[in-house]
Amino acid sequence: MPTTKSRLNLSLPENMETILAKLARRDSVPRAAKAVELLRVAMELEEDIVFSKLAELRDTKKAKFLTHEEVWG
Quick one: 31 exposed, middle or buried, by C-beta within 10 A (0-12, 13-18, 19+)? Predict the structure, then answer.
């Protein structure tokens, strides 16, 4: 059965493979599903870091604050 998901072949160091296997076993999911979940969380953290840096750049004494109504109408 074809899938719409793209495949990614990874080579993991032994210690990462061991940890991934233990986490997958703990959560009763396949290793691939656990890897996808961990990758999703890591990407969200990276996104948060980027937005945090952007917010820090915009947070100046001259910054103009807008109300919810001004922003969202």
Answer: middle
- CB atoms closer than 10 angstroms to residue 34: 20
Give the separation between CA 17 and CA 11, rounded to whole angstroms: 9
Q: pTM of the full predicted structure? A: 0.75
Q: Which tokens is 47 given?
A: 């996104």
Q: Copy the structure tokens of residue 69.
A: 């109504």
Q: Cα-atom radius of gyration of the chain, to the nearest Å? A: 20
Reading the block at residue 29, the tokens are: 């999911």
Amino acid of residue 68: H
Cβ proximity of 32 and 17 under 8 Å: no
Q: How far apart are CA 48 and CA 40, in angstroms?
A: 12
pLDDT tens-place string over residues 18-31: 999 999 999 999 99
